[in-house]
Amino acid sequence: MTAHNRRPLPKRSLVWLSVIVVALAAPLVFRSDTALNIGILLLLYATLAQAWNILGGLAGQISFGNAVFFGIGAYTSTVLLVRAGVSPWLGMLAGAALALVVALLVGFPMFRLGGHYFAIATIALGEIASTIVTNWDAVGGATGIVIPLVRDAQGQPSDSWRMLQFNQSRLPYYYLALVLLALTTLVTALILRSKLGYYLRAIRNDQQAARALGVAVLRYKLAAIALSAIFTAIAGTLYAQYLLYIDPETTMRLDLSVLAALIAILGGVGTVAGPLIGAAVMVPMSELTRAFLGGGGNAIDLLLYGGLIVLISLFEPQGLIGIGRRFRRSPRSQPVAVEPAPVSSSEEAH
Amino acid sequence: MELTNVLQALVNGLLIGMVYALISVGLTLIFGLMEIVNFAHGDLLMLAMYAAFWASVLVHLDPVFSWPLVVVGLGLLGIVIFHLVIAPILRAPMLAQIFATFGLGLFLRGLAQFLWKADFRTIDHPLLGQVAGGTLQLGSLFIGLPQLAAAVMAALAFGLLWLFINRTRVGLALQAVAEDRATAGLVGIDSRRMFALGWAIGGGCVGLAGAALASFYPVSPTVGVLFGLMSYFVVALGGFGSVPGALLAGLLVGLVQELSPALLGVPPSYKYAVVFGLYLLVVLVRPQGLLGRF
């Protein structure tokens, strides 16, 4: 957002390096199934949030429909696998390609809409997609699809890299998710430093002005949604292979789209680290409250993170990352607000 | 496709459309005033339905009698929400505004589920369901009495709101603030008060809709999600900030939802998807919605 993103500090690289080391070592230290499950979900949700961040944070196009891309990724690889025995690796590519095509087809007309109209249009799109999948028997309808276990010669569930399935130890899922997150984060960081990043920020801050200066607004918005869709779809395939079961309820619903956005917002939108921080706080919190405060759907997790989101929006609109900055930076280099307020500054007129 | 079916769908569509319009009017009013979309709107409706439900279960007050209480209660809640959550973010980035109200919605939904469980609850013997068996028969058409009452109440509320906005000094002040806050300030209108009033009216309308719905629609913590979504579509379809637009779009959405299975043979499970599709279609042709501001 501001100058410090482009000025590599040794301290900054050190922080990133230690994050990577911790992420690599964590599953070797915390060895329980519960911890591994939380770790894998954390990485997958962080990927969703980071991918959302490219579209919603960098380009300022608020999407509540990213679950569509996630669902496309999950369903494409799973249907190809179950119907035709295609390896999920190829399915992953096919899913990403399909998500890309859908993103461009959808983005082309919808990027004419501004602000709230766009956000609501993405909700509409997501609901249409989930209705279609729920009523489409060829892809399992409302009941979904079970991915058959890979078995060895003795008929025991086994591992297979070719089939992207690991039944003896779930550890490979963790590292695959970590690679995907690292890739998504790297791309986000590269965009921020590239021309594309400047164009996207210009579009986010003032689309009219950007257009007047000759920025090809539609083209760069399409680039943002394309990247967002591709990474989200790949995460979808990985999620399907991890759970070995997909249905419209878990892969395509509005809540998932919202969650991707919430995590990014919570951490700090439009920054590289924000979505990671958001996921690192939100996912364990939600899993642990669910585990310890009774999983019987008493919704304490919903209460907590609803409240947290309100508080963050009220007091630190830049997200958790903004709290850290308050302590570290002098007032002079405080990052500027993400966007100008849509409300006119005549607020104090009375 | 029989004529009776089509007529029946027409009637059902108009009835539910009036309820959609009533739910949406507060949303559009609030947006017109302060350019904030309240993403917790559906959850306020949920609270209103619970209020009517508990009034009936705990103190045996049927929604027919409890609705004024629910309207006042939700109106007050609207004012509280304005002061606690909305006032601090009036000039915040759009993102912060969206997520403050979104978070509020999640919080209310979580609260409802925490306090009252995820169960679907219905009022056992609503008064309107007992009068004449709960249905009017006109030839071969059946009209649910609770649904009819809801639509009539909605129509009355729209009439009153129209009179209030256009025929009273306060209503004109409301319009002035929506038109130009700074200029309204110059002639001595306190825009913050008008904002709070907008939230009170929005809450009150949702309260009325919730009390009316409680007689014939099961209550659950997530009941607001669908109605909330519908109200966003109605508001965007009618044009953000337009009260007549909300009425028109509400009726349109109700009619499309009910008529598409009867006329076009769309499977009933797709009826909401058709509404969402309609929204996309309209908004892509007319990005500003059907009607302008009020």
Question: What structural class do you assign from the helix and strand content of chain A?
Answer: mainly alpha
Chain pair forming the biggest interface: A-B, 60 and 59 residues
Strand order of the largest sheet of chain A: 1-2
Count of individual helical segments of chain B:
12
Strand content of chain A: under 5%
The percent of residues in helical segments of chain B reads over 70%
Task: Spell out the helices and strands of chain B N to C.
Answer: HHHHHEEHHHHHHH
How confident is the prediction overall: mean pLDDT of chain B?
89
Oligomer: heterodimer
Main-sheet strand order of chain B equals 1-2
**How would a textbook summarize the main sheet of chain A?**
2 strands, antiparallel
Written account of the structure:
The complex is a heterodimer of chains A (350) and B (294). By secondary structure, chain A is mainly alpha-helical. Chain A has a domain at 30-253. In chain A, 67% of the residues lie in helices and 1% in strands. Chain A has helices at residues 10-29, 33-58, 67-84, 88-110, 115-134, 171-193, 195-205, 207-212, 217-243, 248-251, 254-267, 274-292, 300-315, 320-328; strands at 145-146, 245-246. Chain A has a two-stranded antiparallel sheet. In chain A, helix 7 (195-205) packs across helix 9 (217-243). Chain A is globular, with a radius of gyration of 21 Å. The relative contact order of chain A is 0.17. Chain B is mainly alpha-helical. Chain B has 12 helices and 2 strands. In chain B, strands 1-2 form a two-stranded antiparallel sheet. In chain B, strand 1 and strand 2 form a beta hairpin. Chain B is globular. The interface between A and B is large, with 60 and 59 residues.
Key traits:
heterodimer, A: 350 residues, mainly alpha, two-stranded antiparallel ribbon, 14 helices, 67% helix, 1% strand, B: 294 residues, two-stranded antiparallel sheet, 12 helices, 2 strands
Summarize this, please?
Helices cover 67% and strands 1% of the residues of chain A. By secondary structure, chain A is mostly helical. Mean pLDDT of chain A is 85; it is low at 330-350.
